[in-house]
Specification:
about 260 residues, mainly alpha, about 70% helix
């Protein structure tokens, strides 16, 4: 007579992540540790500065507004570091360049969404806090950052800016790694220029952009349709260039 034992909670079969998802998860997990320090510093500054200013004068200007530039260029510089150093580890682990490119682009997209949500939410929270304290809340620049702006408009403005900047960082680092310092520097207008152009477009308050009337210009900020079109075109062009260069990159085998 044979007896069989049936477990109450049978173990689930182990699931393996694909190389693209594994790459994106790895990059985001690593960057998340750096981002925690970044946002902790931003939070301390955003809370401390108005309290200090209120003690000696009048509070009237948003503090987190000034974090916009750091939200563009800090992850941009991190992406340069990733593009120059991570592919060697990735290929040495037996994964392909294509999976690295897809994973890195996915990580850049998720990172842009996360930073855009936090920046837009932070501005809204700061405006509510200033109102509760009886302080005036204003912004240094206009464009898509008008004092009466909504969360949705802010989210679009930040996301359009960040996604271009982060993909641009991947391309800048890859060109430097592949072609060296001279070509990396000479091509900066093409590799990093779109990031600067997108920042200017979103912060534009006088709508000097040519042909903006074709996108429903009102003579003030850059039209939303133009912001989205420019962001989509620049992101696609940068991602295509990153794909072409990174998938053909020669990576020497690791020694030792």
């Amino acid at each position: 007579m044979s007896t069989t034992t049936r477990t109450l909670f049978p173990a689930r079969p182990a699931t393996r992540q694909g190389p693209v998802l594994r790459t994106a998860t790895c990059l985001l997990a690593w960057f998340g540790q750096v981002a925690l320090w970044y946002w902790a510093i931003v939070l301390v500054v955003v809370v401390a500065v108005p309290l200090v200013v209120d003690a000696v004068g009048d509070v009237g200007t948003s503090t987190i507004w000034f974090a916009r530039q750091s939200g563009v260029w800090f992850p941009f510089s991190i992406m340069i570091g990733i593009a120059t150093t991570y592919p060697q580890v990735h290929v040495a682990s037996g994964m392909t360049r294509r999976s690295y490119v897809r994973g890195a682009l996915a990580a850049a997209g998720v990172l842009a969404v996360a930073f855009a949500v936090l920046m837009a939410g932070g501005l809204m929270a700061e405006r509510a806090w200033y109102g509760a304290m009886g302080w005036e809340w204003s912004l240094q620049d206009q464009g898509w950052f008008d004092p009466d702006v909504t969360f949705g408009s802010l989210l679009v403005a930040y996301l359009a800016t960040f996604v271009v900047a982060y993909v641009s960082g991947l391309l800048v680092g890859t060109v430097y790694a592949v072609a060296g310092g001279w070509w990396g520097t000479l091509t900066l207008p093409l590799t990093a220029g779109p990031s600067l152009a997108m920042t200017i477009l979103v912060g534009n308050s006088n709508d000097w952009v040519p042909f903006s009337d074709l996108f429903g210009s009102t003579g003030e900020a850059t039209p939303l349709a133009l912001v989205l079109t420019a962001s989509a075109v620049m992101t696609a062009a940068l991602a295509a260039a990153f794909w072409l260069v990174a998938t053909r990159r020669s990576i020497a085998p690791r020694r030792g």
